[in-house]
Design a protein that fits this description.
Layout: H1 12-26, H2 28-35, H3 41-63, H4 73-100, H5 106-112, H6 116-127, H7 135-159, H8 165-189, H9 196-219, H10 227-255, H11 257-260, H12 263-278, H13 285-301
Helix pairs in contact: 1-10, 1-12, 2-5, 2-10, 3-4, 3-9, 3-10, 4-8, 4-9, 5-12, 6-7, 6-8, 7-13
């Protein structure tokens, strides 16, 4: 988030780090499934955020500038954005995804994350100065939203299977999580200039303050979870949350935010592959059709007309 000059063309190392990010984030849904074998959904979210916060805080103080200052009005505004990031990028979506994955597959949850950049489009139009909802963006949003409808209602449409209220609520929770991520990205984009690591560490710390008491209040103290459940939460904390944030920071500084946005095409694909191969999850045909439609909508929304030569 620290202002930089125009980013240099992406190198092979940038592409390797981008692929690593896609794989790590795609595997986060597997980590949730494993964590849920011994913890409640809010506890999974709380443990992931709290441990990652400790890692990022240590990283921020050892290699960065620590937490943001609280001296000027701008500093206080940064902290307000950190609070928004904690709520909409950490506390709410992690809880919604963990709760939803009690009923839906990791593949479904991963595909629902492809909707994040589509939700960003209308939010940016109203909240970000200079972001106009062009015709291509509108078409891309509507096209992608059709994919969301197919994703949620595909079982009933194609297989004629009844959709229980619990399953529907779990599916909508995953879609709501993607909407939270979109809101969080707008909050982050509108934040005054600040070190990305400081911002992320502060957001995770505040997210931990929100989630840990809530997890204890709602689900109580964990009762001797199995080693695999501990491993699942540990994996979530270390890799998709802490390490991925550091990698994200490096990629943004080296190649820029537009290059990073390409990870949105990778995450759902990896989530589907990992869910099918590791967990043996069934992969209904409409999942792949919905994924194709959502990614198609994302591609259309990012289409830029080339200027015709004079």
């Amino acid at each position: 988030m620290t202002p930089t000059s125009l980013s240099a063309p992406a190198s092979s190392m940038d592409w390797i780090m981008l692929a690593a990010l896609g794989f790590i984030w795609g595997g986060s849904f597997l980590g949730v499934e494993i964590g849920l074998t011994g913890f409640g959904p809010i506890t999974v979210a709380a443990g992931r955020v709290a441990v990652a916060a400790l890692i990022l805080l240590a990283y921020a103080y050892l290699f960065g500038s620590g937490l943001p200052q609280i001296k000027t009005k701008t500093d206080k505004r940064i902290w307000l954005h950190c609070f928004g990031m904690a709520l909409f990028t950490n506390a709410l979506p992690f809880s919604l995804l963990s709760w939803g994955q009690q009923a839906v597959t990791s593949g479904f949850a991963g595909i629902s994350m492809a909707v994040v950049p589509l939700f960003v489009l209308p939010l940016s139009h109203f909240l970000v100065p200079g972001e106009i909802l062009s015709r291509a963006k509108i078409i891309g949003f509507l096209f992608g939203f059709a994919g969301v409808v197919l994703l949620v209602g595909g079982d009933k449409i194609f297989a004629g299977q009844p959709q229980t209220p619990m399953l529907l609520m779990a599916q909508l929770a995953c879609v709501a999580a993607s909407c939270c991520y979109a809101i969080g990205s707008i909050i982050t984009r509108l934040c005054p200039p600040v070190s990305t690591v400081s911002y992320a560490a502060c957001g995770l710390m505040l997210g931990g303050f929100m989630l840990v008491p809530m997890a204890i209040w709602i689900e109580g103290m964990p009762q001797m979870p199995g080693i695999m459940a501990i491993f699942g939460v540990g994996y979530l904390a270390v890799f998709p949350t802490a390490v991925a944030t550091i990698l994200l920071t490096i990629v943004v500084r080296r190649a820029g935010p537009p290059f990073l946005s390409l990870v949105n095409y990778q995450v759902p694909v990896w989530a589907v592959i990992i869910g099918a191969t590791v967990l043996g999850e069934a992969l209904p045909g409409h999942f792949l059709i919905a994924l194709g439609i959502i990614l198609g909508g994302l591609f259309i929304s990012q289409w830029r007309r080339r200027a015709k030569p004079a």
